[in-house]
Structure formats: structure tokens, C-alpha cells
């Protein structure tokens, strides 16, 4: 009889679905690891070329594209453009990044997800610490296009603003994307994080405070760190270490018994409307 076989068929089907999910997770993990390896290789290649002095000519040519002819200390465009670019570059500053991180951490604490909030704090702080350590390791001087007294005091390679923007905006974008129900919204928030990171890096070139390879290395470092933190967050959530941040679709309320069985409630007309009043009996 077919009835005894039905539980076995359902169990086999569930097993096949589980294997498919596990296979997709393994494939995603392989892709993430391959991307991280590519980012690490790219960063090391850039750092090696910078250390050997192989990028000086290219760096100077690219940087001069953002400066006025005959006056390298003056960026191209009207004075209002330079002021706007300074506003954009502030999005990668320590003050803005720290404030935004604290806002997100406080939100997770108020939402009763304190471990996820602490994880975001550690991820951002770790990326900033790694960037600063690499600055001290390579100790590259800033471009000599603007007066030295207006330049930041820390070394140039890699760009701290570009790395911080990539770490914060990409990490928050990836975390927020998992809480949204629609694919279009997920793509939007991740793309917004990429745009902000790119805008901050380009602003550093326009202002003449970084070499192009500094910014490229900062993007590579920050992007790799954000991807690593995102993958680690997924693994920790599957193991129950962190609270869930994914969107959970609410089940639809069950239909009423009368609707499921196709029974009309008392007093309802066959067409679904209210029953008409009974006609009065004719006079005797």
C-alpha cells in the first residue's frame, strides 16, 4: 500500500534538501576563501611594488590628474568642489566611523542582541588596528603636493580612510542585507556600502594626501576584512554563538474552518453576500 511508504519518501526528500543546502554552503565558503586569498595576494603584491619603488611614476601620473596644470598644490575644479570633497572624506574619519559604529552597537543592545553588537565593535576595531599596524610596518611618506603642516601625521600606506570606510560600510551593509526580505533591498544596501567606500578613497586622491596605491591597498585590505567578518558572523550564528540577524518570514494566519471546508456561514447568500430578507406572505 502507498501509505506506509509516504514517511520514507518524505524523509528521503528532506535528506536531499539538507544535502543541497550543505552543498551550497560549502560552495559559498570556497568562494569566500578564494576571494580572501586573492585580496591577500593583491595587497602583498602592491606592498612589494611600493617597497621596491616600482609604483612611483604611476602614482605621480595618476595623482597629477587631480591637480591644476602648473600648480600641483591646487586641486582641479572650483573651491566649492574641494569643500564638498572634504565632507565626503570625513565619512572615513575616525570620528564618523567611531560614532556610526557605536550607534549600530547600541541598536543591537536595545534589540536584545548584545553579542552581535559586541561582534560588530570587535570587527571594526580589529580592522582599524590592522590598518594602523600596517602603516607602522611600511612607514611610507605622504605625497609632497600640499604643505607638510596640513598633512596627517601618520604614515601613508595603506590609506586608513579607505580601509576604514570599506571595513565599516561593507561590514554593516552585509549585516543589514541579511535582515531584509527582498533581494533588491539586499543589493541596494551592499552597493551603497561599496559606493561610500569608493567615494572616500577617491576623495583622498583628490585632496592629495595619499598615493593611488595607498588607496588601492586600503580598499583591498578593508574589503577582505569585511568579507572575513561577514563569513565568521554567519558561522558563529549557525553555531548559536551570535544572535540571528536574518529576516524571518512570518507565517500566514490559518484560514477559518468555514473557508477551508467551503461552508457558508449562517445567513450568507450563495454569492457570498448577505441573505435577503424573506418576502412577506400574501394576505389571506
Outline the secondary-structure elements:
Blueprint: H1 5-52, H2 56-64, E1 67-68, E2 71-75, H3 79-89, H4 94-110, H5 114-138, H6 160-177, H7 183-206, H8 212-238, H9 257-261
Explain how this protein is built.
- The protein has 284 residues and is mainly α.
- It has helices at 5-52, 56-64, 79-89, 94-110, 114-138, 160-177, 183-206, 212-238, 257-261, and strands at residues 67-68, 71-75.
- A two-stranded antiparallel ribbon has the order 1-2.
- β1 and β2 (71-75) form a beta hairpin.
- The model is unreliable at 1-5 (pLDDT under 50).
Task: Characterize the biggest β-sheet.
Answer: 2 strands, antiparallel
**Helicity range:** 55-70%
- Give the overall average pLDDT: 79
For the secondary structure, the number of strands is 2
How large, in whole angstroms, is the Cα Rg? 29 Å
Tally the helices: what do you get?
9
> What structural class results from the helix and strand content?
mainly alpha
Low-confidence stretches: 1-5
Helix and strand string, N-terminal first?
Answer: HHEEHHHHHHH
Distance between the termini: 66 Å
Q: Describe the global form.
A: globular
Strand content: under 5%
Amino acid at each position: 500500500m502507498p501509505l506506509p511508504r509516504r514517511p520514507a519518501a518524505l524523509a528521503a526528500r528532506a535528506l536531499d534538501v539538507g544535502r543541497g543546502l550543505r552543498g551550497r554552503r560549502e560552495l559559498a565558503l570556497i568562494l569566500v576563501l578564494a576571494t580572501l586569498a586573492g585580496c591577500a595576494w593583491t595587497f602583498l603584491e602592491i606592498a612589494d611594488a611600493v617597497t621596491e619603488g616600482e609604483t612611483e611614476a604611476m602614482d605621480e601620473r595618476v595623482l597629477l590628474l587631480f591637480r591644476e596644470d602648473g600648480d600641483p598644490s591646487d586641486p582641479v575644479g572650483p573651491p566649492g568642489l574641494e569643500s564638498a570633497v572634504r565632507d565626503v572624506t570625513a565619512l572615513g574619519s575616525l570620528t564618523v566611523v567611531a560614532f556610526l559604529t557605536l550607534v549600530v552597537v547600541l541598536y543591537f543592545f536595545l534589540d536584545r542582541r548584545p553579542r552581535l553588537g559586541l561582534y560588530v565593535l570587535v570587527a571594526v576595531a580589529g580592522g582599524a588596528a590592522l590598518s594602523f599596524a600596517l602603516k607602522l610596518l611600511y612607514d611610507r611618506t605622504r605625497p609632497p603636493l600640499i604643505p607638510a603642516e596640513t598633512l596627517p601625521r601618520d604614515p601613508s600606506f595603506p590609506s586608513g580612510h579607505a580601509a576604514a570606510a570599506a571595513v565599516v560600510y561593507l561590514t554593516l551593509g552585509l549585516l543589514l542585507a541579511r535582515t531584509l526580505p527582498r533581494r533588491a533591498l539586499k543589493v541596494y544596501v551592499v552597493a551603497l556600502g561599496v559606493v561610500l567606500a569608493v567615494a572616500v578613497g577617491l576623495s583622498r586622491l583628490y585632496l592629495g594626501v595619499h598615493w593611488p596605491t595607498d588607496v588601492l591597498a586600503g580598499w583591498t585590505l578593508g574589503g577582505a576584512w569585511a568579507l572575513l567578518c561577514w563569513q565568521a558572523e554567519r558561522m558563529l550564528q549557525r553555531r548559536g554563538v551570535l544572535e540571528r540577524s536574518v529576516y524571518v518570514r512570518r507565517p500566514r494566519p490559518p484560514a477559518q474552518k468555514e473557508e477551508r471546508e467551503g461552508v457558508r456561514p449562517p445567513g450568507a447568500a450563495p454569492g457570498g453576500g448577505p441573505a435577503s430578507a424573506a418576502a412577506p406572505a400574501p394576505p389571506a
